[in-house]
Design goal:
313 residues, 78% helix, transport, transmembrane
């Protein structure tokens, strides 16, 4: 177990280093001059040169690269080129809102998707199966920003059940839940569509195993066979999809936060892109990479908890 964790951590460090290197150079080739984006088109050449020197943009690229890596290792991610405040503080201020939305969407997707997938597999080629498959296909067909706009039009503007702008600053629990409802439903339903299809496929495979027929022959209750024996063996593919899709879910949360005008990494990254804020972009990519690497590690460790037959290697 210890060797497995160390091995996975080693792969995580290599992955993080590779992603940071790619992010550093991609950010540098973005069109536009960050100094001009900050000072404006009317700034003098002297002011532009002074700002580039202050930001370290006049140094050779390899010097900037090693300064960037050294800063990441010691927790110094630099200061925003626009606000002048430390990048880590700017990110940590809005990160809880994004993590809250992602977590609630994940729980909602699993709570809806797994039972629907099991139900669809048990009722294979019958009306509930057809309805579930069509519904999951529709959920996969809509981009996150399209479904977000539709939810706003129906439930916020027409029915007025939820606020149009999800400020995320509610003082009471009910206010926070109302602000969170539509964004979480938007992402959660997309997640549920993925999980439903994977759960159905995994359950169909498990239902054909010999031990399931043996359990029926012994007279075990149908619910016991499905939820206690079959589902546990079908969870491995589901956990894999959840781990892989979580990175996509965080990416979709960016679009969702923009549509619902919700505070989070989404608005921060768009502002950084528009203003060519290199340090802010790099800091957010570090956060995204750390989250994805951590989720993949947790996913690998979860396999052994679900199925003890899996050996760590």
């Amino acid at each position: 177990m210890t060797a497995f964790v160390l091995k996975r951590l080693g792969f995580a460090v290599i992955t993080l280093f590779a992603v940071l290197t790619i992010v550093f150079f991609i950010v540098r080739v973005l069109p536009g001059d960050p100094a001009m984006a900050i000072l404006g088109d009317q700034a003098s050449q002297g002011a532009l040169n002074a700002l580039r020197a202050r930001l370290g943009l006049d140094q050779p690229l390899y010097v900037q690269y090693f300064q960037f890596l050294g800063g990441v290792l010691v927790g110094d991610w630099g200061v925003s080129m626009v606000s002048g405040r430390p990048v880590i503080q700017e990110i940590l201020k809005v990160l809880p809102a994004t993590l809250e939305l992602t977590f609630v969407s994940l729980v909602l997707g699993a709570a809806v998707g797994i039972p629907l997938g099991v139900w669809s597999a048990v009722r294979r080629n019958k009306l509930p199966d057809y309805i579930t498959r069509i519904a999951s296909l529709l959920g996969l067909s809509f981009p996150a920003f399209v479904s977000a706009v539709l939810l706003l039009l129906v439930f916020a503007i027409q029915l007025r059940w939820f606020p149009v702008i999800s400020s995320g600053q509610g003082t009471t629990l009910s206010d926070r839940l109302r602000d969170l409802a539509l964004p979480a439903i938007n992402l959660g339903l997309i997640m549920a569509a993925y999980i439903t299809r994977v759960s159905r496929s995994a359950m169909l495979e498990v239902l054909n195993q010999d031990y399931v027929r043996t359990a029926h022959a012994k007279g075990l209750a149908f619910a016991t066979i499905i939820w206690r024996h079959c589902l546990r063996n079908a969870l491995i593919p589901v956990v894999t999809v959840v781990g892989l899709y979580l990175g996509i879910l965080i990416g979709n949360s960016v679009l969702t936060e923009i549509v619902f005008n919700r505070p989070g990494l989404g608005k921060l990254i768009i502002g950084a892109l528009n203003q060519r804020d290199y340090t802010m972009l790099q800091g957010m990519m570090v956060i995204y990479t750390l989250i994805v690497v951590l989720v993949n590690l947790i996913t690998d460790l979860t396999y052994g908890l679900i199925d003890p037959r899996i050996k760590y290697s």
